[in-house]
Amino acid sequence: MIKTQKKLPEIQSKLYINGEWREGSLDAKAVINPATGEQLIEVSQGGKAETEEAIQAAKEAFPKWSGMELSERVKILHRIGDLIEENIDRLALIMTLEQGKPLSEAKGEIQTNISNMHWNAEEARRVYGETIPAPNNHKYEVKKQAVGVVGAITPWNFPSNMIVRKIAPAISAGATVVLKPATNTPLSAIAIFELFEEAGLPAGVANLVMGPASEIGKALTESDDVRKLTFTGSTEVGKQLYKQSGDTLKKISLELGGHAPFIVFEDAPIEKTVNALVQMKFRNNGQACTAPNRIFVEESIKEEFTEQLKEAVKKVTVGNGLDDVTVGPLIDEAARENIEAQLADAKEKGAEILLGGERLTDGEYAKGFFFEPTLIDQVDQKMNIFYEETFGPVIPLIAFNDEEHVIEMANDSTFGLASYTFTQDLRRAEKVSRALEYGMVGVNNTGVSQAEAPFGGMKHSGLGRENGHYGINEFLETKFVHTSYFID
């Protein structure tokens, strides 16, 4: 039976526009706990009208916010970071209840919010321009200025950090924001906006609109007042937003799907590599765009590697995220159905399921969206799972014998976000990291997301970068100023 019962903390349930909490014009929508199926709360919903009001509020707030004394802006940003730290337990509990991930993992996500806020607060002081050598009596200057109003759309899998990772650099740059969070997980957004208000963020600088994605997204893309759109989510939706933004020629950042290869060469330390794989694969129950989805293991060590991996996967525990478990539920029923379809296709084409492969439905699992940790072998390029992103607890194993061939297989994907390789050969590590067509490469580690380093992909995994100084630059325009001095 479920060991722990915790109630949702008291929290707002309304839209936040121009510094005010207000009801939306559409019917409220229930937020469901994916571990228990229970309704947590109903949240207000808005559409085109509310989005347009939020855009106008952000537009009116922009001159004041971007023109504020930098030290005052930085002080507010640091205050937000401090408040997030003070409220870490509350924020993590809200996230676990609405999204399902283990409480300890939710706290880790909130910790990254703290780093992101403080990093970007200080990065606001480092938005440097440039002076270019010019002819006598002339001055060439390059200035960086905030882009203006930003539309931000965030996903459910990291429902708090994806918000902070977009809003922190945007408002640090001096931009203002209209945020549309994921329908499944709006409470983490609301909780962050409560802290914005408490920190004294001026009205209109950050606005929150919850409601139909298509309606809100279209209002953002069609508006000439929204000069930048930043989106994290599926490649399919990202492409649609990209097309819709064409008529208004927005700056755009898209952090889309991933299908990360995880390459294990014969000289890699097996135990350490297995531990790294299991930890990264089952983070958020595999519901991450950076999750290792195709595990390439050199044939000479594959048998031993597989045996150690089987034992490690057997230790992965599944349950309510409020309990002491490794993974919680999947986000919804569609997620389970997608995994089952991939596994059925792979089995029909010759793959072998070594562990798991079934949904969990008995006892404490009956009302939630649970699935067994799964290990599948003999995967090849005939199977859908080789090419389709797997948002779930499935580890597919693929054998290889040749360095060039494994690079070719790893790059055989429309995605290009994260990738990983494990080897003690520095020559090989350099060669493989250069050859992999991915925006991020972990060599002997899986730590590809850091506040101070660029995060983003190639190919169908998107455009632009988040984090580090690359992240704040996405919310800046570059202006050239040529000054001539009148000489008598």
Describe this structure in words.
The chain has 488 residues and is of the alpha/beta class. It is 39% helix and 23% strand. The chain has 15 helices and 24 strands. The strands form seven sheets. The chain has a seven-stranded mixed sheet, with helices on both faces. A six-stranded mixed sheet has the order 9-8-7-10-11-23, with helices on both faces. α6 links the parallel β8 and β9. α1 crosses α7 and α3 packs antiparallel against α6. The radius of gyration is 24 Å and the shape is globular.
What features would you highlight for this structure?
488 residues, alpha/beta, seven-stranded mixed beta sheet, six-stranded mixed beta sheet, 15 helices, 39% helix, globular
Question: Which regions contain 5 or more consecutive residues with pLDDT less than 50?
Answer: none
Number of helices: 15
Largest sheet: 7 strands, mixed
- The overall average pLDDT, rounded, is 97
Strand ordering within the main sheet: 14-17-18-13-12-20-21
Shape, principal axes of CA atoms: globular
- Strand content bin: 15-25%
Q: What percent of the residues sit in helical stretches (DSSP H or I)?
A: 25-40%
Radius of gyration, whole Å: 24 Å
Oligomer: single chain
Classification by helices and strands: alpha/beta
Distance between the termini: 89 Å
Strands, total number: 24
